[in-house]
Structure to design on (614 residues):
């Protein structure tokens, strides 16, 4: 089975300093691929390159057999790649409900959206996702007043409202309590039934829980790839990452 | 729940406002006063346009005089040409004084009243679409956009001032007769003209209010909060910014047309930087996040200017400055925000805002 997302020989440098150095990755549909690596390994930059926030210096990115290298952020998002940011990015001045409504992006045309006043399919989906993320009671409050855990879940819910084929989650459990982490892990396993996920995460316990494939990045390139067992047994990985970073 | 956020209560407040402004000619018999109140409708339109663009769209626009002024010139040209005769007297007097022997091609379309008014509305709107699209696609935003709009306004001001033979420079254009529509002259001091301006204000306010409640309205507010995030949800942010900016320009263009109908005069003063900044002050004081608040802000400031300004002279400006500083410092949402807080305190007895600092610290600790 061909990969849903295929990254080939990606390079990116900032002012001549290489950050991504010939990174390649193939993500199979309906799997969870975890990307790990020490700080500065290029994980978030890779996310930026996939979602169009940065343009690669060279290399290609294919999504569902289409070349998406160099497209704008909104064009890539429309093709079905949703992203949750490392620092939770929600609209703080809007209510939780409005945040979810914004994320429902079936109709993206500015002129047509002037005549959209709520739509039944959207409301059903909103209720469903709010229930999944335990936000039903919080729908009317301003998103800026949510706790950190709720904000993380709101942003994951927003990505779900978008209904993407691939979800990129950048540190979805950073700053969450043990209980919230377990809940997030359960949610991700449930999502795997219908979606493909790429998760950047530092928490190895969480990675062990959810990952089908683990990709280790180091100095902007692929250091190792395999199941969590294989990765934990890999000497080079232990050297650069697990030994020094696990806490 | 805070009554301020109740949609039905909001519409009720707008309904009361509309009823009051529409009833004014029934109680005002002084035609000069009625004409002056009509110009307040123009200020209301301008405040409405700033509230949409700055309040909802987050686009601080210090050059709203561009649309207002261009439309005012278009309307003045239309009215001027209504008094010219193609056979015996085809050239406006000021052009003859500037030794033009032929009507400039720029003026030809204004022989037709319909085409003239259409141009007065379409040209500024199209200008906003093109200028906005150029800026927003290059992701120019915030103070940088404000500076660009200011620069563009100053450039237009200079061009109009400089093109003396075509625009009559600093003297401006003073059409000798009121606008005639379908054979009927619109007396600028009569109730019909007041109701025309009032009707346009009501219709555009209702349209703008509906717009803010649509999905589009929600999206421009999201763009105001975090444009970057909106892009990753699949929306073309530049298209949304251009649309709200151009719509606000259209409303300002309608205001420009009404202005000339009421005062029968246009000059580069309508494109003066200080007037465009004044529009932003109205919205800032009244409450830029509220369409109604912004309009009332315009009425309060301009009313104060007309009545207190004459009595207090420069003390008025000092007072206005102090008032503005107080509002910006203590009421970032303007006078409408004061009402929101008041109604919020009434409905709950506590202010949810007070939770915020603790939560922000909480969120930062998590990162």
């Amino acid at each position: 089975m061909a990969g849903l997302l295929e990254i080939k020989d990606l390079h990116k440098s900032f002012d001549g300093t290489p950050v991504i150095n010939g990174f390649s990755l193939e993500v199979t549909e309906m799997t969870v691929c975890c990307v790990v690596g020490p700080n500065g390994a290029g994980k978030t930059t890779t996310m930026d390159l996939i979602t169009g926030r940065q343009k690669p210096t060279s290399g290609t990115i294919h999504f569902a057999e289409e070349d998406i290298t160099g497209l704008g952020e909104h064009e890539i998002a429309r093709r079905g790649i949703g992203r949750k940011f490392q620092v939770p990015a929600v609209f703080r001045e809007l209510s939780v409900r409005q945040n979810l409504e914004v994320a429902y992006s079936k109709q993206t045309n500015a002129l047509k959206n002037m005549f959209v006043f709520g739509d039944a399919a959207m409301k059903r989906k909103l209720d469903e996702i709010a229930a999944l993320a335990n936000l039903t009671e919080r729908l009317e409050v301003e998103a800026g007043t949510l706790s950190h855990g709720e904000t993380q879940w709101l942003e994951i819910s927003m990505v779900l409202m978008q209904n993407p084929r691939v979800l990129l989650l950048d540190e979805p459990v950073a700053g969450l309590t043990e209980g919230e982490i377990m809940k997030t892990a359960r949610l991700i396993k449930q999502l795997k039934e219908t979606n493909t996920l790429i998760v950047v995460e530092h928490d190895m316990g969480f990675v062990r829980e959810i990952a089908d494939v683990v990709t280790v990045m180091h100095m902007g390139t692929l250091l190792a790839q395999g199941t969590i067992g294989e990765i934990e047994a890999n000497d080079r990985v232990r050297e650069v990452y697990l030994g020094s970073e696990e806490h | 729940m805070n009554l301020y956020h109740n949609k039905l209560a909001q519409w009720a407040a707008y309904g009361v406002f509309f009823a009051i402004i529409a009833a004014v000619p029934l109680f005002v018999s002084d035609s000069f006063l009625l004409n002056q109140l009509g110009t307040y409708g123009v200020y209301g339109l301008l405040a409405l346009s700033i509230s949409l663009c700055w309040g909802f769209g987050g686009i601080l626009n210090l050059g709203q005089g561009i649309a207002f002024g261009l439309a005012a010139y278009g309307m003045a040209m239309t009215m001027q040409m209504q008094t010219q005769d193609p056979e015996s007297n085809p050239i406006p007097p000021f052009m003859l004084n500037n030794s033009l022997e032929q009507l400039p091609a720029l003026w030809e379309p204004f022989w037709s009243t319909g085409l003239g008014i259409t141009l007065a509305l379409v040209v500024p709107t199209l200008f906003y679409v093109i200028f906005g699209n150029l800026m927003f696609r290059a992701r120019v935003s915030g103070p940088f956009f404000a500076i660009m709009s200011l620069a563009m306004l100053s450039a237009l001001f200079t061009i109009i001032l400089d093109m003396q033979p075509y625009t009559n420079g600093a003297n401006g254009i003073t059409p000798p007769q009121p606008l005639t529509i379908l054979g009927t002259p619109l007396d600028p001091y009569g109730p019909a003209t007041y109701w025309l301006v009032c009707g346009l204000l009501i219709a555009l306010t209702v349209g703008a209010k509906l717009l803010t409640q649509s999905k589009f309205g929600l999206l421009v507010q999201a763009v105001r909060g975090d444009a970057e995030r909106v892009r990753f949800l699949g929306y073309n942010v530049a298209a949304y910014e251009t649309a709200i900016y151009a719509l606000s320009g259209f409303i300002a263009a309608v205001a420009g047309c009404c202005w000339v109908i009421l005062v029968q005069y246009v000059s580069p003063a309508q494109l003066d930087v200080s007037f465009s900044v004044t529009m932003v002050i109205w919205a800032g004081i009244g409450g830029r996040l509220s369409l109604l608040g912004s309009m009332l802000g315009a009425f309060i400031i301009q009313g104060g200017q007309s009545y207190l300004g004459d009595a207090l002279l420069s003390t008025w400006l000092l007072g206005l400055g102090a008032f503005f500083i107080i509002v910006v410092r203590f009421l970032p949402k303007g006078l409408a925000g004061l009402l929101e807080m008041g109604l919020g305190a009434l409905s709950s007895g506590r202010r949810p805002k007070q939770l915020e600092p603790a939560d922000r610290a909480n969120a930062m600790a998590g990162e």
Chain B touches chain A at residues 1, 211, 213-216, 218-219, 221-222, 224-226, 228-237, 239-240, 243, 352, 355-356, 359-360, 362-363, 365-367 (CB under 8 Å). Residues 3-366 of chain B form one domain. The longest helix of chain B spans residues 237-263. Confidence is low (pLDDT under 50) at residues 351-367 of chain B.
